[in-house]
Amino acid sequence: MTKRTLIGPFKQILPMTGIKLKGAISDHELEVIVEGGILIEDNHILATGNFEDLKLKYPEAGVQLLKGNHVCVPGFVDAHTHICFGGSRAKDYAMRNAGKSYLEIAHSGGGIWDTVTQTRKASIEELTKSTIKRANRHLKNGTTTLEVKSGYGLTVDEELKMLRAIKEADKEALPELISTCLAAHMLPKDFDGSETEYLKMTSKELFPILKEENLTQRIDAFIEQSAFSADDIQAYFSKASQMNFHITVHADQFSAGGSKVAVEFNAISADHLEASGDTEIELLAHSETIAVALPGASLGLGCDFTPARKLLDAGAALAIASDHNPGSAPMGDLLTQASILGTFQKLTNAEVLAGITFRAAAALKLEDRGKLEAGLLADLAVFHSDNYQDILYNQGNLKPCMVWKNGELVFDRHK
User: Fold this and answer.
1) C-alpha distance from residue 157 to each of 120, 162, 206, 209, 210 (Å)
2) What is the bridge-based pairing of β-strands 33-41 and 246-251?
3) In angstroms, what CA-CA distances link 304 with 49, 101, 284, 300, 356?
4) Most distant CA pair in the chain: distance in Å?
5) What SS3 state is found at 71?
6) Are β-strands 4-13 and 70-74 bridged in parallel, bridged antiparallel, or unpaired?
7) What is the CATH classification number for the domain harbouring 39?
């Protein structure tokens, strides 16, 4: 039986509708519905508009009455995380802030390989449980959809363990989890062969199982001097394309080159881009690839931010994600990071909010969320405020008081 629920009244609703996918956005382009309501039918939005008008038009709907001032925005979409992992890298963070280099940290037993070692030791049950815990923490901060990568297994069996854990976690986690295979994270220290040989083996042995078990539709790779070169990755991405995987790329984090590969392979997104120059910015702006800024990595490593302002002004589509991982981006607070990026890159409220809602959804090829309009999923983040500007003004300190996922109230800070 169809269930209809009218939620409101909201002092303001930001539906994020009528805004283009690419390029700069003025705050004047934001539609604001005042004294609004959202009518939910099962797990989708049936209508938005004036609360009293909706109550008269749909008298059969149950009403969830809100007292006080509330602002509603679409549930946030975090399009790049690594929250499935074992262990901790707190020692790395302390050493980095004490002036140690990446190589010095790696030689002391830290770095990505440390997380690989600890993740391999963890059982699938342990990884599932910790992934659920981290995902639910994100939901309490307003994130209703969360991408989660593998990449700390680096053998066929261990990558499968991670992706199976992510799939199991998705059954219980409050946000929806979108898995990505990042077996091409780095050349494993214990692999007896070259980068090309590792990638050939992985694509041959791992890809068919990913399809067979429906573990992911997405293939990622880290293109960097310390990982895989643009030449190394060609055959790997070609195989992924032939098997109809969606491609995404860790690109231009420390050196340029990855974004060019992303555009060549029509990747859904190119993520990081801290080292992108004018050539890479123009390339991305004239492509359909979404540029994904990861301010959490910049804060964790103490390096430059993604040139978000230049990307937007050039006409690129810009999403913002947390990169939540145990090494370079341990904070894992999307709203705080997006607010800080906005301050340093001079982004409008509209650009930041678009970057963590519908533009982020586009970076995951999801067209059913990221906006509050009829037919889309009823994913809502609600804040105690009478002015939507307070959300970014408080730089992450103003947390959602309520979160709806698929039409269900899954978090209520009052309880």
Assistant:
1) 10, 9, 9, 10, 11
2) unpaired
3) 42, 16, 19, 11, 20
4) 70
5) strand
6) parallel
7) 2.30.40.10
**What are the DSSP calls for 81-134, one per residue?**
------S--HHHHHHHHTT--HHHHHHTT-SHHHHHHHHHHS-HHHHHHHHHHH
Could you tell me if 44 and 116 lie in one domain?
no
| Domain residue limits at 386 | 4-74+370-412
- Whether residues 37 and 86 fall in one domain: no
Compute the distance between CA of residue 223 and CA of residue 230 in angstroms, rounded to an integer. 6
Encode pLDDT of 141-193 as tens digits.
Answer: 999 999 999 999 999 999 999 999 999 999 999 999 999 999 999 999 999 99
Same domain, 143 and 259: yes
Place of tokens 């990884």: 127
By C-alpha distance, which of 128, 126, 184 is closest to 154?
184
Query: pTM of the prediction?
Result: 0.97
Residues 200/227, Cβ–Cβ less than 8 Å: no
Count the helix, strand and coil residues of the chain and give each as a percent rounded to the nearest 5: 35, 20, 40
| Residues paired with residue 36 on neighbouring β-strands, in sequence order | 10, 50
Domain count, the chain: 2
Contact criterion met (CB below 8 Å) for 295 and 341:
yes
Torsion of CA 371, 375, 377, 383, to 10 degrees: 50
Convert the pLDDT of each residue in 348-369 to its tens digit.
999 999 999 999 999 999 999 9
Distance CA 304, CA 253 (A): 10
